[in-house]
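Q: Could you fold this chain for me?
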Amino acid sequence: MLNKRFLILISCLAMSFLGLTENAPPMQAGFTTNFSCIGPFEKGCDDYVLSGQVTAKKTFVSVVEKMTVTTMDGQLIKTEKTKYHTIVKGDSYALTFTLPFKSSLSERGLTFKIEFIEGNDELIQTFSFNLKPIIRKTITAKDYINDYYVIEDIVVDPDNYSRVKDEKFKFDQALDYFNSDTYYRLSLEDVLITYECGLPFPGCIAHLHFVDYLKSFPYLDSENEVPTFDIPLRAITKNNRISFAFPQVMYVKPATLEMSLEARPGFVSTSYFYLPKNRCEEILDQVFSVDVKEFGHGKTSFTWDMRYLNNQRLIGDCSNSDYCVIGEPTNE
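A: Sure. Below is the predicted structure, expressed as structure tokens.
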């Protein structure tokens, strides 16, 4: 029994030493690489210099780095090599390659493979990644309430491509109605978009669009036969959520709660968007559209429609109402 236990112990120690136990970490490669996320890129843009930091885990007498570029369907575009060099364990150096976007980046996409080779042909380490140009698209937002809209290969981490290779977002926390109990003012805080990407959200162009059939907003309306207006919106980023907000400075007439984007006599500045007094029936069940263009790195366009459903009229003068209008100082 003792000999059997001894043999089992020796076997386990040997497997641990060789890195063969179930929970043993994988064998370490020869280099640690550190490349930042890159993208997005436009079709026909200038060539891009890819640069990262490399640290040797052991000494190599003769090493060359090689980049191979192909289309994503396999057509060879170019190869590029560094000169052979000696690397001492612990040394760090910058590795750069020129990505041929000007001549080669198209809808077909490009695949980049970077290899570390010792001597003539001993492969030490490799990593690869794909890149595609931005292709602007318009999506139907309500198709992506439960599932992400995914744009692959426009923002990637070259040496961590399996984990960081797309921009994606969904409208899982966006309401299609204004969540308000009173006829008072509009808030867009319930239009929440879940957003994920290797780089921070870069912004978008957004407006609140309204077709004013009954001409309830005279100081905002266009001069068209059926007037419309578009209020510019701000995109707010918090954690991995994108929401929208009205301009920090607008103008409201306290006596009527009529809104304006321009300063006018009798109006006070405000950051809130008020609904005009005594117009509840006109606005009830009307659609306000959050119209978004160039959203995120993929420059996606979409519209999110919201209906005004509330019919309570709890607003009045400051002396006898829970809600009233008080002028706010501008930040200008």
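A (continued): The first strand starts at residue 31 and ends at 34.
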